Amino acid sequence: MRLANQEIERSGSNLSFMRDINKMISAQKRDLDTSFDGTAEIRNGELIINPPQGFGKFPIIMAGENVEIFFNGQKVDHPIIANDMAHMCISMQDTKPRTNLKIDLLNDNLTANLTIERIPGKKYALMDCQPVNQLKITGMCIQEEEPDPIEFNAVINLLHEQGIVYGIDEEAIQRAICNKEHIITTEAARGVAPGESQDATIQYNLDKENNLELTKNPYGDGKIYSVSTGAILAIKIKPVMGKPGVDVKGQPIPAGKPKDAEILIKDGVKLINSGAAAVATRAGRPVLEGYQNKYISVHPVHIVEGNVDIRVGNIDFAGDIVITGSVLDGFSVKAGGSIQVKGDVMHAFLSAHGSISVHKKVLSSRLQAGFSTLAYKMIYKVLQKISIRLENMIAAIKLIKIQPAFTTTDLHQKGDGQLIQLLIDFNFKDLPKLVQNLIQIILNEKEEKFLPFIIETAQQLGKNLCNLGPIKIMKDSEISDLRNKVVSAIEKIDLMISDSADITLSYAQNSDIKASGNITITGQGAIISRLEAGRKISIEQGVVRGGELIAREAIKVSEIGSTQDAEVKVNLMESCSFAAGTVRPSIRIIHGSQMEIIQEMGYNLKVQIDNNRLSVINLSLS
């Protein structure tokens, strides 16, 4: 019985234990059914962590602006789980007020700028945030503290530390340190700039009286401004060295070296006083010649009293020609300077290196003023490019030959041609093309009789630099000789080019007129004539009936076209513009392959070239 009672008691306690276990399991089940994530919040500047329930997520915190988080004394830059607050510390990134002083030297130490940056100190507190599972902790500024005032001596000492001792502007520094702006830049010191050096200049005493006459009458009165032997034509103003300056470190600044200049002379002029002045050695008209380098010379003057006829014959004179009468049928007048004709030109030929003026009519004649200039200009530009490329090639050859790895066995046996050909193939591919361009310019100018030295230079360049020519070169000195020849040709052409070779006349009929400068018709106009100008054509009073107008800068006419089917061609070269007051039918306007045809009466025609495109921008139809 006793044993039986003990068994009963044990079974009863087991049942009680099982009931307790079941209760615990049920409670845990209830807790699991009500799981939620933990949160973190900032309340009144304090971080509060609310742990998760059940299977909820632990809150995650991370450092935001002005806050640092440390875990076990180590700074943490990544998000962390907020489950061990005992080892975590949050620090605010408070800053102390400070002032930065900076000196910048500018303009080769001629000026020194002071930059003052005042950075206030800031104290931060945690910014409140509602409970969230992922919290970025940020700090908000709760107090700012301005930096201490700047000591004037601190700035002076900083300048001295950087060697700045000259031209210190104490007033500007005082204004800057008293300014309350957070950042300010001022000029703290300024040196003295060196004085500007004056380059040598050439003053010319030329053509003053003739210019006054031209303003009254485009022909003048038939007289040419001239000088007598011994007249001073030019004086040289010597270069003047500027005064030296001083930089903010007290170091002298030398003035720039002025450029010297010399009076360049040709025939009829000599230099005196060690090149300080140029005087005429003969009577005649003083002129400036040259494209880039200007040379002064005195042209002799040949005066023909009356007509150029059977009594006088053809004229070919190196200087200026003045004809008081007319040039009659079948005769020619050629001048190395200018030509003035007070009468008519009829069935004749006039050619001048300088300008041509005809007071009256030009009938069935050919006039040419400096027109070779256009072809020579193109040749001049190409030769300049060739000269530069040859100079670079000479330098490249010298550089290659001094290299230790370069062997010259083949060159001693076969010459330098192989090296020159390689340089052309890899570094100077444009050189043969430039030479071919030069030759083509000469071939295209069928009417032009180029001087022998130009032909010879082009032929030598073609022989040595085109096709298999480079391979046949034995010594690199041949390239130097070739460049010297090109330079000589450039210098000669420079003297031959004139931009101011103009033609002025009253009326043209059935004539061919070419000028490297401007063509001006002052009277009735041009009938069935061809006018070609390197610059401008101006017919502001007369009419244009038939023929052709060609120019590179501008064409301006009063009236153009005809109702009698006499077509007029207007050829606009390069960026030329065209304007006409009255327009009649049968006008063909051409620019390259582009063409506009006008077959109606109109007024105020304006045509221009935009981006190489021909555009009629105005035409009022009647």
Uncertain spans: 208-222
Main sheet: strands, sense, barrel: 21 strands, mixed
**What's the end-to-end separation, in Å?**
146 Å
Radius of gyration: 47 Å
Annotation, overall tally of beta strands:
44
**On the 0-100 scale, what is the average pLDDT?**
86
* Proportion of residues in β-strands: 35-45%
Quickly give the structural class. Answer: alpha/beta
Approximate helicity band: 10-25%
Overall shape: it is elongated
Separate helix tally: 10
Description:
Mean pLDDT is about 85; it is low at about 210-220. The radius of gyration is 47 Å and the shape is elongated. The protein has a 21-stranded mixed β-sheet that branches. Strand 43 (about 600-610) and strand 44 form a beta hairpin. It is an alpha/beta fold and about 625 residues long. Among the domains are: about 1-35; about 200-250 and about 255-300, OB fold (Dihydrolipoamide Acetyltransferase, E2P); about 375-495; about 520-620, Pectate Lyase C-like, CATH 2.160.20. Helix 9 runs antiparallel to helix 10 (about 475-495). It contains ten helices and 44 strands.
